[in-house]
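Bumping with the actual sequence this time:
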Amino acid sequence: MVTEIGNAGSGIRMRKRYSSKGFILVSVLLLCVMLVASATAYAWFARTQVKTVIQDKSTLQARSVAFLLVREAIRGLKLDTNKFDSPLEEWFQPMLIPLDSYGIANVVLKPLDNKIPLQHLFLPDGTTLRNEMKDLWEKIWVELGERTTLPAKVLDYIDKDTISRPGGRDGPGNLNRNLLDVSELLGMEEMTPQILYGEYPKFGLVDYCTMWSDTKININTIEPHLLALLNGLNNNLAEEIVKFREKKEIASLDDLKGIPSFPSRALPYLMNLVGFTSAYYSLKIELISEDFSSVRYFDIVIHKPTGRILRWEEM
């Protein structure tokens, strides 16, 4: 009996030893797994951080290059003192510029002032619609199919007084100030993205109006579908003017007399509405890294008289 009891005790002690060894082995394995997982996580984190740093460095470098190109464009605009701004001019053509520190820059500078100026619809009182804009404003809304509902309401929304014009609506909720961006018009109850931005194949308000135009519209850049709506003109005359300006810059209304079909009676209507130079310019920059691994795009608007950058978008 004593021997059996002794053997039983020995077996219990052996099982305890095996259990302890098994526990230690499992613990070691778990620790190894944790260490491997931690190392993997740290490596992933380190790679992510390095990648982020590299991307940030690349972004900052591209942004610096773009800023230098913008500065040179502003400097060039100050030197441009002729009496017209036309896409035909040599320096408004696409330019490929090699960059020793980066790669290649594809730069396109274009004169704007090609649509109705939303910032200059009114006389200095901020309320009275400019006389030369009246017919054109109505024609736009006819083209948009919204003649009876929105023309006066949009004017009331952005003019400086709080008095409703015929067919309009003024009061709380109206901006009664200049727009900061055309998207602010979506604050109106009746305005929809389809009316504002258009829905293919139909044009929207932004196809006729812009924030980037001075008091006059540059006849060298005006959009053809808007050109056809100017008093004294039509679709056929607009096509003739577009063909003419594709071959020769327009520096004065007298130049339009070079178009055989151009009616002299249209000149008085155009005098206060169209000009030949631009105050606003679009600068599009495409930066391609030396190894072609990175391409960055910048879309910038410059105000020539002040040399200010009014919009900076990058992708």
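The tokens above came from a reply further down the thread. The two ends are 89 Å apart (CA to CA).
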